[in-house]
Write a structure and sequence with these properties.
The protein has a five-stranded mixed sheet with strand order 9-8-10-7-11. Strands 5-12-6 form a three-stranded antiparallel sheet. It has helices at about 5-10, 35-40, 45-50, 70-75, 85-95, 140-150, 155-160, 165-175, 190-195, 205-210, 225-230, 235-255, 255-265, 270-285, 290-315; strands at about 20-30, 50-60, 60-65, 65, 80-85, 100-105, 110-115, 130, 160-165, 180-185, 200-205, 220-225. It is about 45% helix and about 20% strand. It is α/β, with parallel strands linked by helices. It folds into two domains: about 5-105 and about 220-315, D-Maltodextrin-Binding Protein, domain 2 (3-Layer(aba) Sandwich), CATH 3.40.190; about 110-210, D-Maltodextrin-Binding Protein, domain 2 (3-Layer(aba) Sandwich), CATH 3.40.190. About 50% of the residues are buried.
Length: about 325
């Protein structure tokens, strides 16, 4: 389903701000946060918690080397986006006044290959062409780190990463046989594997847990806002966090919202795919965080940097002030 059709469904739920503080959310048209944000709007949980969510979808392409949503936030055209925290660290270290103020989830992907492929594990990536959205994508960094630690080679050198530039193009590369495997994002994998003939060789969430050294579910992706917005509208940010938790509770406990999401935001006509996305989302999402969570995220970053180095992560540390716990 295209951006226009999805946006029409979202716009039908927008309503009037009614004098409430506005938070402009700009999210990718094929990213999983749209399921949660649409549900928040449909159930009126933004107004119930004291703010108005202005929700628009954007493409997943790159603008000037950064994802469209990042460009929107940095250019002052958005107040709320989500990206992985490694990218956040990279952009903040380069001077972007962005802040991660609440977790979203373990938004990693999986290694997907044809069912007849000889790729059965990361060890089989030597000499292969592997499709990635971009070489600084978190999935590729995880694979590089895991291969260095467990298999003694760096796939950035022993394999050939092929940058697709978008998730849609990444799927096309796989379908057209232009690559041997892809590192696709988790919400798209059910459609690929259910319709076949492809299989998920390895979920990246397994690498996250292995490299972090903890059993706690760590959020890879977080919600971001600008330093300016957080300073001027801290109450709205806290209201979003409350509405988010309430929305997560509904999506985890109730199947009805997923039926609506499947009908209005997904292009799948196969209930099995919708259920697979629903179950994957429930496994992925992180409802809240605390200081212990941040320690685990710091440990994962350290593990990735120790193995992949600054060249893989694009940054050598998590900048001070990047994470904000709103209840402090």
């Amino acid at each position: 389903m295209g951006i226009e059709e999805q946006q029409a469904a979202i716009d039908a739920e927008h309503g009037d701000p009614e004098g409430l503080p506005v938070m402009r959310a700009r999210f990718e048209h094929n990213g999983s946060p749209r399921y949660m944000l649409y549900t928040m709007k449909r159930l009126g949980l933004d107004h119930e918690h004291g703010f108005h969510l202005d929700f628009e979808l954007v493409s997943d392409e790159l603008e000037g080397g950064v994802e469209t949503v990042e460009a929107k936030l940095q250019d002052g055209d958005a107040d709320l986006i989500d990206i992985d925290y490694i990218s956040t660290a990279r952009e903040r270290a380069e001077g972007a006044p962005i802040v991660a103020f609440h977790p979203y989830g373990r938004t990693v992907g999986g290694l997907v290959a044809h069912e007849d492929s000889d790729i059965d594990s990361l060890a089989d990536l030597r000499g292969k062409d592997v499709g990635v959205v971009r070489r600084l994508d978190k999935n590729w960094i995880l694979v590089r780190a895991a291969c260095r630690e467990a298999h003694g080679f760096d796939p950035d050198e022993a394999a050939t990463p092929v940058e697709a530039g978008s998730k849609v193009e990444l799927t096309r590369l796989l379908h057209d046989g232009e690559v041997d495997a892809v590192l696709q994002f988790w919400p798209i994998i059910p459609e690929i594997t259910e319709r076949g003939p492809y299989e998920e060789v390895l979920p990246m969430s397994r690498l996250v847990q292995t490299l972090s050294g903890t059993e706690n579910k760590l959020p890879i992706s977080t919600f971001l806002t600008s330093e300016e917005y957080l300073a001027e509208h801290g109450d709205a940010a806290r209201a979003f966090a409350d509405a988010y938790r309430a929305t997560v509770d509904r999506l985890v406990e109730d199947d009805e919202p997923w039926e609506v999401v499947g009908e209005r935001l997904m292009s799948y006509d196969d209930p099995a795919i919708v259920r697979a996305v629903r179950d994957g989302w429930r496994e992925m999402v992180v409802r809240d965080w605390d200081a212990e969570t941040l320690d685990g995220m710091d440990q994962l970053f350290g593990s990735l940097h120790a193995i992949g180095g600054t060249d893989a992560l694009g940054v050598d540390h998590i900048p001070d002030g990047m994470f904000r716990l709103l209840d402090e």
